[in-house]
Amino acid sequence: SLTQWLLMGITTFRHNTQLTIYLLIHSSTLDGRLIQEFRDSYANIDNITEYLIDLENVQHIDSAIMGLLLVLYGEMKEQKNQATLKIINAAPHILDILLNAKINEYYEIV
User: pTM score > 0.70 for this model?
Assistant: First the structure.
């Protein structure tokens, strides 16, 4: 069966060496287009020392979204990039899920 994201989009904002990636997702199931859109949001952006993943507009999180987070972590590790990875603005129920999934082993959760 086909799965799709109900997605408003992914937006980025750069401030000096910090890149914030805003996920604007209402509900999710994994779709290859979203993975590519997520990768494109930080690809070819040099001299970033801190990546912030803003989850303020994420009301539902599942393994698909956590998979996106691990995509960035995996690529940073593969490239031996020492940039800091942080998750910000997660709602309390999202924070509980992230902690139970041990995402905090890869990302600092602020």
Answer: yes
Helix (H) or strand (E) holding 14: strand 6-15
Closest CA to 58 of 87, 83, 35: 87
H or E segment and range at residue 9: strand 6-15
Task: Give the chain's largest Cα–Cα span.
Answer: 43
- The gap between the terminal CA atoms of the chain, to the nearest Å, is 36
User: Tens digit of pLDDT for each residue in 69-99?
Assistant: 998 999 888 888 889 999 999 999 999 999 9
CA 76, CA 74: separation in Å to the nearest integer? 5
Give the CA count within 13 Å in the CB-facing half-sphere of 15: 4
User: Is the CB of residue 48 less than 8 Å from the CB of residue 76?
Assistant: no
Between β-strands 84-88 and 50-54, what pairing exists: parallel, antiparallel or unpaired? parallel
